[in-house]
Every structure is written in C-alpha cells, then in structure tokens.
Amino acid sequence: MRLHLLAVGARQPSWIREGVETFVRRMPRECPVKLVEISSAHRGKANAGEGAVRKEGERILKAVPDGALVVALDVAGKPWSTQRLSEELQQWRQDYDDVALLIGGPEGLSPECLKRASRTWSLSALTLPHGIVRIVVAEQIYRAWTIIKGHPYHRK
User: Fold this and answer.
1) DSSP-based three-state secondary structure for 45
2) What is the dihedral sign for C-alpha 125, 92, 30, 12?
3) Cα-atom radius of gyration of the chain, to the nearest Å?
4) What is the DSSP letter of 49?
5) Where are the domains of the chain?
6) Smallest Cα–Cα separation from 4: which of 55, 73, 58?
C-alpha cells in the first residue's frame, strides 16, 4: 500500500520539509508515504475565497490515484486516537493499494474534496498551520506503523 499526502502549498519553510521527511524516511518499503504538494490558487480580487478553494480542490482531486481511498483532514471530521489510526492503517493495508490523505489550503478543502472522501479525520479542534499538519500526519502515520509492528517508538 502507498500513502499519498496531498497538501496545498508548495512553499513551506525548510524546517517543515525536514520534519515531514524525517518520518517519511522511516516508513518501510511496503508502506511508503509520498508528499505531493499542490500549488495554491492565486488569491486576488477575482479569485478570492470560494474560487480559490474550488481551484485547489480541482488540483487535489486530479492528484488522487485511481481507486484510492480518500481521507480528508478537516476540523469538522472525527477525531482519531493514535490507536484508532493504527487500526485504520491496518485495514487500509488489507483493502487498498493507495490511500490519499487530503490537506487543504488556508480556507480548507473544497466541498468536492469532502464529498469524494470516504472518511474525514480531524487532528484537533484547534486551527493548525497547514505545514504543521503535514508533520503531525507524517509522525502519526509512522507512530501507527510502529504500533502495528510492535516497535517501541509508541509508548502508551
């Protein structure tokens, strides 16, 4: 199974890229994580708010692999414990070749992205910077993997 982290925004600080890469590198070959950066829509007078979100949504959905399970990260989603994520990851490994995790831009995900998602996951009720969301998701995926494999990284 392959995990695709589809995230709006291509210009992240080096510490964000390094944070994500730290956990992506730790994943085994049988469960790689690939970060795909989706360019942000221009936010001018003619394309503010909903127009930008719609364009970003179109770009995200084009990047979703055929047949992939789609999981949207959204504040209105269901909060998962790390244990629950490890159970989800185990199930995904059995049922799918590809899983796409969607991270929206400043205004979140488009209604089309949310509609396409089979699951909606909330990391927190807090509003988090999108770069930090990338790191948290990458770390939690790695942590979930270590739970599945019985590795001592995760401590209850």
Assistant:
1) helix
2) negative
3) 15
4) T
5) 2-149
6) 73
CB 104 within 8 A of CB 8: yes
Distance between first and last Cα of the chain = 26
Which residues, listed in sequence order, are joined to residue 33 by a DSSP beta bridge? 3
**pLDDT digits 0-9 by tens, 39-81:** 888 776 655 667 888 999 999 999 999 999 999 999 999 999 9
Which parts of the chain are beta strand (E)?
Answer: 2-8, 33-38, 69-79, 98-103, 119-122
3-class secondary structure, 99: strand
Write the single-letter amino acid at 154: H
Residue 23 in tokens: 């956990």
**Distance (Å, rounded) from C-alpha 120 to C-alpha 43?**
26
Is residue 40 helix, strand or coil?
coil
The top-level CATH class assigned to 2-149 is alpha beta
Model confidence, pTM: 0.92
